[in-house]
Amino acid sequence: MKEQLLEMEKYAAEHNVPIIEKDSIVYIMKYIKANNIKNILEIGSAIGYSSILMAGVSNDIKVTTIERDETRYMECLKNIKKCDMDKRINVVFQDALEVNLSGVSYDLIFIDAAKGQNINFFEKYKYFLAKNGAIITDNLKFHGYVGHSEEIESKNLKSLVSKIEDYITFLKNNDEFTTEFVNVGDGLGISIRKDEK
Fold this sequence. Notes:
Elements: H1 2-14, H2 22-34, E1 39-43, H3 49-55, E2 62-67, H4 70-82, E3 89-93, E4 106-111, H5 118-125, E5 129-137, H6 155-172, E6 177-182, E7 188-193
Parallel strand pairs: 1-2, 1-4, 2-3, 4-5
Antiparallel strand pairs: 5-7, 6-7
C-alpha cells in the first residue's frame, strides 16, 4: 500500500489536487485508534488519500466518502480498488449538501471539502454523529492566511479565508459543541457534543 500512497502523492502534486498534510492525517489516525472509531463519514474524497489512510488504521473500520468532482471521484475509486479497500470504503458521487442519509450514524465525521461550505456541512451532518463521536475539520489555518486576511490581494481568496474565519467563530460560539483547535498540519478543529464531554 505504501507504493500506492506515494503514487497518489505524486498524482496530487502533478494535478494540483489538495490532499491532507502528513502531520494532520497522522494525528487523525492516532485519534481514530485512541477512540476506537469504526464508522467514518468523510466529506470531500478528492482522490481517496485520506479515506484509505483512515480505513487502514484497523481492518474493521468502514468509511463512507462523498465527492462531487467526477475526475476526482473516478481517481478515488481506482485508488481504493488498487489498495484493496473497495469492500470497506464506499464512495458517493454527489454534492455533499444534496446527499440524503438515513438511519446511519458515524463515530467520526471528517470535513475536508469546499471550505466556504463548512458551516453548512457541519449543520447538516451533526445529526448523523454517534454518541461520543467527533467532527474533525481540516484546513482551519488555510496555508497561514486565516487571521491575516488583510494581506490578501485576491478577492476570491480573501472571501474564502473570511468564510473560514466565520466558521471558526461559529465553532467557538457553538452552544451544542466544544471544539479543540489543534495546531497541526494546516490546522484541525475537533468538535465534540458538550453533554458528552
